[in-house]
Design brief:
Elements: H1 8-11, H2 17-30, E1 36-37, H3 49-58, H4 74-88, E2 98-101, H5 104-115, E3 121-126, H6 131-138, E4 142-147, H7 163-168, E5 169-174, H8 187-200, E6 203-207, H9 228-231, E7 232-237, E8 250-254, H10 256-269, H11 275-285, H12 289-312, E9 325-329, H13 336-347, E10 349-350, E11 352-353, E12 376-380, E13 417-419, H14 421-427, H15 433-438, E14 441-443, H16 448-451, H17 453-456, H18 459-464
Parallel strand pairs: 1-10, 3-4, 3-5, 5-6, 6-7
Antiparallel strand pairs: 2-8, 7-8, 9-12, 11-12, 13-14
The structure holds pyridoxal-5'-phosphate.
Length: about 475
């Protein structure tokens, strides 16, 4: 060993946040902790049964067992065109303007390789899904962040970019409905983005992985804008729309030259999606709209339970208009990683530090500019509701009580006590006031003394919380 050196390119990537969080979570689970996972956006609801049946049937057909060439099954591409026209009123040429993907993430990951040269720039909102900068760096591109602000509805403004950056910019990443902020874009914004992209010869990509998870606000496609197909592509995912995260299925639509370039990369590295899964995708697209509406209602219910619950205990988190994330300011002076680590260790609640979506802890190309991220944390709402009428009680070890037992974590010195941020989400719609009132608290305010790492293992908590785990700090920003 010791002979294999990783490429310098890989050195630009920060640790993949979700993997690290999962590692810590699994350690706690193994130690018997009853974990409530509000971390990665992975729906707990099963894939619609019609889709599962379609896969069962199609995978027994030997015709699906061969290489899935043709850059997507023609019948699947026609089904996408029908669905897109019905949902967005946009007509697509199935052969030139549609490309099936092994999940949206795969397409996003490969796109910069298809359209960027070393030194080209990606314009990326901050905060954003971490794959955008990662994919750019893997293609030896550079990143320019555009700050998003709550006042501007988390929509980027293009007016502050300097001419030198505009000359080098090749790709603009957008993501509406937005992870992590839950913001939605309207037609006027997409028109501004298309005009901007046209003026500067930039390809604009809208990652629409949450296109169908909208509670309030417009459901708009980038391609609805006149001229968008000249400069734009949009990525759609089956993951959240049909509870199919594990299936790895998505598609890109829009500008034919960009899709052709992306398909060329894919021809050489992956040979497209298993045909049986594409056929199952056809079954998904044929589901009546009401099925999607029911799913959105479930998420809306969970959103309201969690947001109302947090408001009740004094944490005024925003109510997102779309997606199943809450982007909340941390009500203490802690950095997001400290806060999330504490929630995990004290409350056994997994959350995602906001820093993972911002500049800090990233590679050298986007150092700095992270101050407005440090007090934010993303919460997923897709946590299990009661199953079979029973609340999950976890599997506490004999020696350690679970965090859900009344009274365990109540600490007199905490100024604000957040009753059950975990359990509001956990019980979903079935949560009831009395039960919640009996639950224990997770602190959000902590004295300087308690903030020192020594306090983590001190006093009464050390006997209750013996896990040595913590979220490792991300890559230093120096
Ligand atoms: C904004 C965004 N884009 C893309 C993805 C990945 O989607 P897929 O499962 O289709 O790869 C995610 C997953 O969480 C996401 O949040």
């Amino acid at each position: 060993m010791g002979r294999i050196r990783r490429s310098e390119r890989l050195g630009k990537l920060p640790p993949y946040l979700f993997v690290e969080i999962d590692r810590v979570k699994n350690e706690l689970v193994e130690s018997g902790a009853d974990i409530v996972d509000l971390g990665i956006g992975d729906p707990d609801l099963p894939t619609f049964p019609e889709i599962v049946s379609a896969l069962r049937e199609s995978c027994t057909d030997p015709a699906t067992h061969r290489y899935p060439l043709q850059r997507g099954d023609p019948s699947f591409k026609r089904a996408i065109a029908r669905w897109y026209e019905a949902r967005y009123g946009v007509a697509l040429d199935p052969e030139r303007e549609i490309l099936p993907l092994i999940g949206t993430k795969e397409g996003i990951g490969h796109l910069p390789l298809a359209v960027m040269n070393p030194g080209d720039l990606s314009l990326i909102p901050d905060p954003a899904f971490p794959i955008y900068p990662a994919a750019t760096w893997l293609a030896d591109g550079e990143v320019r962040l555009i700050k998003l602000s709550e006042q501007e509805g988390f929509l980027p403004s293009f007016t502050g970019l300097i001419p030198r950056d505009l000359d080098r910019a090749k790709l603009l990443f957008l993501n509406y409905p937005n992870n992590p902020t839950g913001a939605v874009a309207n037609e006027a914004f997409f028109k501004t983005a298309v005009d901007f992209a046209r003026e500067h010869g930039i390809l604009v990509l809208n990652d629409a992985a949450y296109s169908e998870v909208i509670y309030e606000g417009p459901r708009v496609s980038l391609l609805q804008i006149d001229g968008a197909k000249d400069v734009g592509i949009e990525f759609h995912s089956f993951s959240k729309t049909f509870n199919m995260t594990g299936w790895r299925l998505g598609f890109a639509v829009g500008n034919p030259e960009a899709l052709e370039a992306l398909a060329t990369v894919k021809d050489n590295v992956d040979s497209c999606v298993f045909t049986a899964i594409q056929r199952a995708g056809e079954a998904a697209l044929a589901l009546p709209d009401e099925r999607l509406e029911e799913l959105v209602e479930t998420y809306r219910r969970r959103r309201d339970v969690l947001v109302d619950g947090l408001h009740k205990v004094g944490w005024n988190v925003p109510r997102p208009h779309a997606t199943f994330y809450i982007w909340a300011r941390i009500p203490t002076a802690e950095r997001s990683q400290e806060f999330c680590a504490r929630l995990l260790r004290d409350g056994h609640v997994v959350t995602t530090p906001g820093v993972g979506f911002g500049a800090a802890g990233r590679g050298p190309n986007c150092r700095g500019g992270c101050e407005n991220q440090r007090n934010a944390v993303g919460f997923r709402r897709g946590v299990p509701e009661r199953r079979g009428g029973q609340a999950r009680t976890g599997a506490p070890s004999r020696r350690r009580p679970t965090c859900h037992e009344p009274g365990v974590w109540t600490m007199a010195e905490y100024r604000i006590s957040l009753e059950n941020i975990s359990l509001y989400g956990y019980h979903g719609a079935s949560a009831n006031e009395r039960e919640l009132g009996q639950r224990t608290s997770v602190s959000t305010d902590i004295t300087a003394r308690q903030r020192t790492s020594a306090s983590w293992g001190s006093g009464s908590r050390s006997t209750l919380m013996s896990s040595p785990t913590s979220l490792r700090p991300s890559r230093p920003t120096t």
